[in-house]
Amino acid sequence: MDIEKKIQHLTERLTYIRDIFAGKHNENVRLLETKMEDYRQREASLSSQDRAAAVATLEDLFGFVEQKLENDLTPMDKVRIVRHPQRICLRDILENVYDNYTEIGSKDEHSIDPSMVIARAYITRRQGKKTFNQSVMVIGQEKGHGEEFRNGGSVKPWGNAKAQQYMQVAEIENIPIHTYIFTPGSYPIEDSPGAGQQIAKNIYELSGLRVPVVAVISEGGSGGAEAIGLADRRLMLSHGYYSVISPEGAAAIEGRLRDGERASQELIERCASQLKITAQDNLRMGYVDRVIQEPELGARPYHFDFFRTLRQEMLRATDEVVLGVKGWGPFRALALRSRKKKATGNFDFDSVHIRWSLSSSARDHLVEKRHKKFRQLSRYAAVDPRPWTSHFADWLKQALWDGYSHFKYDFFRRHTKNVSHALEDIDAEVRVVTNSMVHFWRKLGAKLFGRSRRKNAETERQLTKLSEWDEQSARDANWTYTSPRAKEDRAITCPNAEVQGCLDLWAPDLFGEFAGVCPNCGHHFPMEYQWYLNNVFDQSSIVEFNSDIEAGNPLSVDGFDLKIEQAKKATGQKSSCMTFEASINDTKVVVAMLMASFRGGTVGAAEGEKFIMAAERAGKKRYPFLAYVHGTAGIRIQEGTNGVIQMPRCTMAVRRYIDDGGLYLVVYDTNSYAGPIASFLGCSPYQFGIRSANVGFAGPGVIAETTGMAMPPHYHNVYKALARGHIQGIWDRREIRFNLTQALLTMGGRNLYYR
Amino acid sequence: MLDVSKLLEEIQASPYAEISVNAPHSGTLTFNGLVPSSRVVGPFGDWKEKKGTLLATIERERNKKPLHATEKGEVMLVHEELAGTFVQAGTEIMRLRHYLSREEVLSIILKKALHLFNAPERAKYYFIPAVEVKVKVSGPKAISVHDGMELFIMSRMKREAPLSYTGPEGVIYAVYFSHNQNMDAGQPLIGVCPPNLVGAVEDAVMRVQTEWREEE
Amino acid sequence: MTNTAHKVLVANRGEIAVRIVQACRKLGLDFVCVYTAEDAGSGHVRLAKELGGPKSLYRVASYHDANELLSVADDAEATAIHPGYGFFAEDYRFARRVSQRDRKLIFIGPSWRVIRELGDKINTKRLARSLDVPTVPGSDRPIYDEMEAEKVARTLFEFQVDNGIKNPLVLVKASAGGGGMGIEEVHDPDLFRSVYRRVRNYAARQFKDEGVLIEQRIRDFNHLEVQIVAERGGANIVHFGTRNCSIQSTGLQKRVEIAPGFDPSSIAYDFDADQLLADITRHSLALARRVKYDNVGTWEWIVTRDGKPYLMEVNTRIQVENGVSAAISRIKGKSGVDIIAEQIRLGLGAPLGYTQDDITFEGMGIEYRIIAEDPDNRFTPWVGLIDSFSWPEQPWLSMHTHVPTDEPYDIPTEFDPNLALGIVWGKDISEVRERGISFLDALVLEGHDKSGSPLKSNIDFLRKKTNRILLF
């Protein structure tokens, strides 16, 4: 390299250091600046040999300072590293990790979404004299060294849809998928599909995908990361971050900032470290399997050694996944075991060959293992104070249910069905014969005697006397739950009053008899979740389970213990998710309800665990599974990745349930946003909105901040969501019971034998 | 012929409209601290989704109902004597001076230029459904009318009757009635621009666009 | 006696507001009126200005907005609300709010529970059947099942044929409907299924309830009413006789009402009319007692040509035509009965003070509803300015109107088009007819609209109908 280039290179390194420390470690930066300046001053007077020596000294100094600073990196510094235009990006990886590749569906800005890059690539391995080209599908966000059109790796829904499509292609081709996560988060627009809707589809797809998936996280921004992040092996770059929300976003919420206001640098730093977003944190919590060490201050495109390491890690991870599910020869097994013992780096993964295609049974095993893996995650993060005896009793009960359900539904039902079908046939035959005989006699009788007097009197009685009628069941407006707001003597203005001319409503009418619905325009005011518990399900049919599992503060965020305690006290609940069995018109269902009154209905480890257990219970008992979302603001940010991981975990539980033939219904009320929508709720084939509810990915404020566009009013309204294809219908609150009954009668898979 | 210059001059001479802010309903009045010469704004935002300046609140049946400015302007008069008292519906509580916007000036000029079709009786008026749909989708200028064309539904005393347009052929340039609003007999319902006037009207539109400076 | 410490908010307009104010004056009660911008010229506004004390007239945004009425009631320190007819008269929610809000008022009308109970068509029909009060043949509960609906319809057709009805008809009604919405007629049993589905779908869309009622469509009937008056608590319930309201416009709006309901002394009927009037009165009282009816109300009946009565509905309010019953009633032999004053007096909690035996009837009354409309053209309302309106006063005539007689009046388009009620009394049918005609002949009602065309009224129509009163 000639001197000039080296100086240029050092200048870039200096800029990089300055940028990532954002005003900190000034003395070091100044030292480097002074030395650089010194050199420039002297440059003209130096001989070329002296120049080379001076530059070498400078390079050593840079190396020394970088090493020193490496030890002082804070989590927020890592965030700045990851966002820096000098950081490696997907294209560098394609160039340097793989031996050959073709980009699918994009050429620079000409792409359905330039922030999502798909490539078919291969890695060449030599075994003895033979070479093998092993194909993979590479999927990842491209930040593109500051190219505007890449949108910083913030993927639009159709970019994620493209990713989903090529996941399916990889499945057909039976090749592994390597995903590279370089995203600050998804681009939060609602369209057909909307951001959340598509992420939910991706996660659902990945949870059942029958090929190995290895994910590498550099910048793992929440939902955007999960869209391609559900993998059999999850690797993370040592200087990356993986988080539920950007530190700035967390600071804005923590500091209760209104739009436009900026959080202090100090608060942002604090949030970044409290959220436990680094690779080391995530490895400790179990959300990544390995950390790949980067050079000092993070990998940049000239760190060719790093790409070699990355290549080895990708080979190793893919091999491990494949070998973990495949029956393989005893010698290679031995080889693998010995490989495992040795430290990495000593072993050259390029020099063995393991075929990456899987047999059908291995693919089953793969998916099963993936589900088991995620099922175990984050369990520590929920507070479960039940003694082991109760756990054991639970386990025993579940096992019994398993056996019972199998006997009742799979074995017994099949046989009784056969018998009853035969009986129905016989009955039908008999009826044909008797009917024709009866008909003959009736006709004869009518001819001989005419219509009898007795019959006339009977008709008159039927038409003019009081009939039998079970009024109790038929009368509406007798809601059994009364909202506390129905006890205030005051008028309430409907938000549509100006447009629709609605008169003010008297609170006792509105929140009592009207069930919170404006009689003029049909606007639905939010009602308490108790209203639903009392008016939707059969009287006193609700039996809660797993109520002991509590939301906690797994990251020990300052002051959050208190806030959680306050929420528990105010609501009398231990988490925002209540799970129960109930019946609707005598059909038993399992329900998971997210309550807006408990910390905005946010989902953390406890809520996720309860949701999964509810889905599993529904599967075991062969009951329909209803997610009633009284409102959710998303993943509980104070739990960091403990919360984010609930997106794949719960989606996988739902997928298992649906694949077994269950009916999974989702009903959205009030406001439902973010992570849960973009995963385990949004993946249901049957989602319904209560009128006037809002469903979407990011609230209007967040959209304005991230996209710079103002959204029209009612952007997230259920009618819009219906038009966009996100939800499947809109229900009136007063008819939920009727609609649920109807849904139970008309929808559902083979698992539902209740009909 | 239409003398746009002269009309513009006339309007320029008194470029204000006085808006009387009346209590929309009864209740106890609280002012929001505005005084004469305070500036107020009307609804704003890309979709006019943000409300104008809060002028006052009227509390009725323990429900505080805000009263916002509907136009940009300046406070001329505040009926301070009503503060804290029970006001009846329709009582004037404030008066605003509103500097005419381009659209308003244009509408004044157009009212003089266009053929106006007036309400024959005091009633509520609607376009017939076929026309209503077109107006909603493409605006009133998409509708060309001719003499004898069935255009309106006239609704009064819970009865509806069709009403045909009479007058020259042309396109609808302005609509002066709105949903559920009673129109007195003789008030214009629509302004129609006959083909021979299109030039003059377009000219007027241009002139107003370029010559009328909206006050900041 | 009446507690005169009360102040009554008159939550209505026009003629009934005028009569309520007059009744309050008669009882020595304070009152407060409301009006809207369109109604500034109405007689009730003028009367309030003339007769009212302080805080006796308020302008409101709408007569339909309960919040306006109640906030005015509080500011004016009213203690009771008279809803008149229309607007809130039969709105049990309004009555409930009035009596349950923190600052409670007396709702001058039946208690809200009674309004709710009798406001429900199905409930009323079932209550009636439980007391063996005759109701229209057909279902008395909503039917949700198509098979069942068809069965009921089929039996109804057969039933009518068996009863000698030539062209049997069946009505399919949305059970949650009202005001003539969601009702269809079926004349052919084969068409029933399609009509049923149409009504059911309409009901599901419009009222969110798929239930339908299936009833016999009765034709060729007279419309009769029984006037009930009861004191608070429902212990004392009396009737003020019957009315016949069969003369109606094409839109089934009443135009002429006569008390009593039939006149067997001069007209021959196919049935025992005295017995029939006694029956419907007895049935009405039975139902009133059952629900502990506690104010004035009207039981509406239809009576077929062969003398079969069917209870249609109960109007839990004062009616327009209450004056015609008052005209023929005597309490302890005295004339000058005022049912509106009785309503207020009893509504405020005063005891009845007389029994059924104290109530007697004398002569016959006709009430004419004088309306600017065109009877030849489907009774289309006429709108414009009334220039002159006058009539000669008579001892046998009482006029109720909110239209001024000394200045022009612009008819507002927002409200029902009644201009005046003329109530004529005579000792028998021939005298009352004769007086009616002479009243209509002497009545001056002139005006013009914007185009200069003269006022159209129903006076000729009323005159023509006078000779046909009480005939089947």
What does this structure look like?
The complex is a heterotrimer of chains A (about 750), B (about 220) and C (about 475). Chain A is about 50% helix and about 15% strand. Chain A folds into four domains: about 70 residues; about 290 residues, 2-enoyl-CoA Hydratase, Chain A, domain 1 (Alpha-Beta Complex), CATH 3.90.226; about 45 residues, no CATH class; about 220 residues, 2-enoyl-CoA Hydratase, Chain A, domain 1 (Alpha-Beta Complex), CATH 3.90.226.10. Chain A is α/β, with parallel strands linked by helices and about 750 residues long. Chain B has two domains: about 90 residues, OB fold (Dihydrolipoamide Acetyltransferase, E2P); about 110 residues, OB fold (Dihydrolipoamide Acetyltransferase, E2P) (Beta Barrel), CATH 2.40.50. Helix content of chain B is about 20%, strand content about 40%. Chain B is built from four helices and 16 strands. Chain B has a four-stranded antiparallel sheet with strand order 1-8-6-3, with no helix packed on it. Chain B has a four-stranded antiparallel sheet with strand order 5-4-2-7, with no helix packed on it. In chain B, strands 9-16-14-11 form a four-stranded antiparallel sheet, covered by helices on one side. In chain B, α2 packs antiparallel against α4. The longest helix of chain B has 14 residues. The model of chain B has no long low-confidence stretch (mean pLDDT about 90). Chain C is of the alpha+beta class. Chain C folds into three domains: about 100 residues, Rossmann fold, CATH 3.40.50; about 80 residues, ATP-grasp fold, A domain (Dna Ligase, domain 1, 2-Layer Sandwich), CATH 3.30.1490; about 250 residues, 2-Layer Sandwich (D-amino Acid Aminotransferase, Chain A, domain 1). Helix content of chain C is about 30%, strand content about 25%. Chain C contains 13 helices and 23 strands. In chain C, α4 runs antiparallel to α5. Chain C is globular and about 65 Å long. The model of chain C has no long low-confidence stretch (mean pLDDT about 95). Classes of the chains: A alpha/beta (about 750), B alpha+beta (about 220), C alpha+beta (about 475). At the A-C interface, α16 and α19 of A face α4, α6 and α7 of C.
